Amino acid sequence: MKTSALSLLVGLFIISFSSAYAQEAPPPSPETLPATMENPAPAETEATLQTDGDVKILEPANSQPVGSFTSYYKKKSALIKATDGTNINMTYFWYEPETKPADGQTLPLVLVLHGSQGYAESAYHLIKESVRGPYPAYIMVPALPQGHRWADPGKLKPVHMLPDTITLMKKIMMENPIDPTRVYVMGCGTGGTGAYGAAQLYSDLFAAAVPISTTWNHKETDNMNKVAIAAFHGSEDEFFLPFNSSDTITMVQRHGGTAFFTLFEGMKHDCNSANIYTPTLWQWLFSQKKTAAQPTP
């Protein structure tokens, strides 16, 4: 497979990919994680919005965002004040490193935003031993109720839950030993749109963003130069045209930002390709750090 890419770290290392497009592995044993995650039909809940007094309870549209490996994560919920002033109980899936950090030590946080089918493929690849071993980190996978999205270009609307997600994330950051200079966001498809939105709307919070197979408006990038961005896309993506993402990256570069775009020739819309989740990506991602962290209120 040929790639057209800007290297993730110019002068330090270059991206190389195999000539064969990775195929999905057969159903794995619990002890061995395969190259890619199988996505069964989303396990939808019957009701995604319930009420308990003055609290709205938001249940995920897909209760298995990491497929059969969702059990590696703890299903949690937290009460927050939404941007519209209502009290909501948001569901999220939480991964803690096997070895807790020593007193005074902090670890990175990776926010993974799932796609339209409720799957967070990046959250699967992050828990592989080859990643969680050298790069211990907390991982947060928030879950959207049916009919909601993270963000889109243009003005945020009630259907968009990125602001409430950030409120929840800040709450979690206050309760765990998280390094505020090493907070990252990843997502594919509509989750990747959310990752772009996070880099634009919350640029003082995130050190790096990884939008995959997604889209954004290149005219809405004025804050993204504060966030290191590595974007990936297939040339044959049938849902999101590659040029929207590549134009976005080009504009971020013009604003003086650190941004890279990798195009996989012949690849369709794919959130799960092992060619994306390489040691090069993880080395780059976990090396990103804010020079001055935004305080977490």
TrEMBL record:
Assigned keywords, A-Z: Hydrolase, Signal
Gene3D superfamilies recorded: alpha/beta hydrolase (3.40.50.1820)
Top-level taxon of the source organism: Bacteria
GO molecular function, one term: hydrolase activity
Position of the signal peptide: 1-22
InterPro entries listed in its UniProt record: AB_hydrolase_fold (IPR029058), Plant_Biomass_Hydrol_Est (IPR050955)
Protein name: Phospholipase
Origin species: Micavibrio aeruginosavorus
